[in-house]
Amino acid sequence: MRNLAARVVIPPTPESTPAENFIRGAVRHRGEILIYALVLVAVAISLLPYYWMVSSSLRTMENMFRVPIQWIPNPVNWRSYVLAWNAQNFPRYFFNSFVVAVAITLGNLLLCSLAGYSLAKFHYFGRGLLFILILSTMMLPLEVTMVPLFLIIKRLDWANSYQGLIVPFLVDGFGVFLMRQYMLGIPKDLIDSARIDGASELKIYWQIVLPLCKPALVALGVFMFREAWDMYIWPLIIVSKDSLRTLPLAISLFMSSYGTAWDQLMAIAVLGTLPMIILFFFLQRAFIQGIAVSGLKE
Amino acid sequence: MSSAVHAQPFTVRRRLRVGLATKQAAFGYMILLPTLAILLIFRFLPMLEAFVISFSQYDLIHPPRFIGFANFVDLVHDPLFRNSARVSLIYVVFSVLPVWPLSLALAVLFNRSLFLKDLLRSSVFMPVVMPAVVMAVVWTFMYQQDGVLNTILGWVGIDPIPWLRSSSTALPAVILIGIWRATPYYMVIFLAGLQAIPNEYYEAAEIDGASRWAVFRDITLPLLKPTTLLVMVMTVIVAMKVFAVPMIMTGGGPSDSTRVLPLFIYQTAFEFFDMGRAAAMSVFLFVAVMLFSVAQIRIFTRGED
């Protein structure tokens, strides 16, 4: 808030601030008002499900479908959170989701950066072909390979296990592509001079290349964490034991068994979204960057 | 040190360099190996196996039995499969077409100076932050007969819509969520594309006194073409894979109206245990995904050797 006030009173640059533009624009151009109206409609549509989720988690069941609709919960029903949290083994499901998402994120950071480094900075036979091969895994989504992948996991006896949930996703074709593109920009002289100084290849990767890739790594990490936190179809297929359920699986099962207890369902929905919101709040730029680069070619 | 190297005979220096190059190549292979191993075992092997299973009858209990093209022939004549393919096609077309202009329009709106721009942009981005399963649960609640959406529609005089309970409105309801989720995602990609357009073009247009629309049509759109192509392909691929939302919200109903292909594959395999038939359907889906993925990879790697 303080920042904003400072910007309005003392323009940091000779150019006018957005706030001044807003006022001047509102006076001079009707088009400006239209633009703000459109943006506000978009904001309302984007946030309505959030508002409805949070407010309904705090609404009592008697007021849930009242006519006229109750926009602000009154009385506030905090008990829905307690009831939902204790209804099933939710601490365990949260723990499982964290273990799986963290392991998949760390695995991708390590393996994608190693593979990307290899493809960007080393010369060997078959490199171009291997790169295309890795890229082509992007056309083999789980929705296509779920049947045989399940059979492979069963053969490994990995159904109902953490390794079954984690290992198949430790590396991702898109992640390798992202890291390779980023590492192409690292000057070769930097690596060569480290070699002349006698640094081992592993040390060059760990102490010179990786620190230079920090922005790409953060973006990739956030991207992968979000994907892993979101994962639904795979746990649905290979997990039947309660103790290994991840949060998305647990929420969907909670909905089929507590389908009408909307206050508790919304409370669990809020809790399941919270880690993503926290991640977005603290790593907003990386969060958006990870998505922006999924559409960039260089 | 360097004078010592120069003093060596040519052949020794050459062998030294070749030796170093081999050592480096070996390291390059070594660090690529874990990635190759995982992708081979958990991506390529399953795809090969999908083809093999698609030619057999397999229920997980009895050993697989080779039956040739029977699964494929059955599928082509199966009204349920044809319905599912049709539902998927409708879902893809109608969840993708609105996203292109909407996400581009939002990106253009946010690519200019706005009061509280960062806050507004983050708010519009929020649908991407919500986990897919949570999204399905929350929207199911909003789609209730006495729910918030029908209330808001009532304000403008629209009668309550049965949403998920009617076979004519369930698929549009599912499509609407897809649009809600995808639009901000591709807005971010379009924004990145817009910001990559050099400002000089716009300055030149301003000097020439071009109108806003002319600038958009003659400068922004042509220079945004690579991004637009990529967004088109990506949206289609993502839409072909939709699963969580129809699975949780409708389970494919009412009367099969939301049974998209991935959902039908899942149900055939893990509810009816007909692995062969499910694998044959996967092959169909694979071909569709592959056509668009090849386009995506070509856009990705354009301009490289």
Please describe the topology of this protein.
The complex is a heterodimer of chains A (298) and B (305).
Chain A: H1 2-9, H2 18-28, H3 30-57, H4 79-87, H5 90-121, H6 127-136, H7 142-155, H8 162-166, H9 173-184, H10 188-196, H11 201-212, H12 214-230, H13 233-238, H14 247-257, H15 262-282, H16 284-293
Chain B: H1 2-7, H2 10-54, E1 56-57, E2 65-66, H3 70-77, H4 79-96, H5 99-110, H6 117-129, H7 132-142, H8 148-155, H9 170-195, H10 199-208, H11 212-223, H12 225-240, H13 244-249, H14 261-270, H15 275-300
Antiparallel strand pairs in B: 1-2
Q: Give the count of structural domains of chain A.
A: 2
State the end-to-end CA separation of chain B.
38 Å
Determine and state the CATH class of the largest domain in chain A.
Answer: Mainly Alpha
CATH fold descriptor of the largest domain in chain B: MetI-like fold
Main β sheet profile of chain B: 2 strands, antiparallel
Structural class of chain A: mainly alpha
- What is the CATH topology assignment of the largest domain in chain A? MetI-like fold
User: Mean pLDDT of chain B, nearest integer?
Assistant: 88
CATH superfamily label of the largest domain in chain B:
MetI-like
Q: What do the pLDDT scores of chain A average to?
A: 87
Query: What overall form of chain B do the CA principal axes indicate?
Result: flat
CATH class of the largest domain in chain B: Mainly Alpha
Tally of individual helices of chain B: 15
CATH superfamily placement of the largest domain in chain A: MetI-like
Beta-strand proportion of chain B: under 5%
What number of domains of chain B? 2
Unreliably modeled segments of chain A: 1-13
| Radius of gyration over C-alpha positions of chain B, nearest whole angstrom | 27 Å
Q: If helices are DSSP runs of H or I spanning 4 or more residues, what is the number of helices of chain A?
A: 16
Assembly annotation: heterodimer
Report strand % of chain A. under 5%
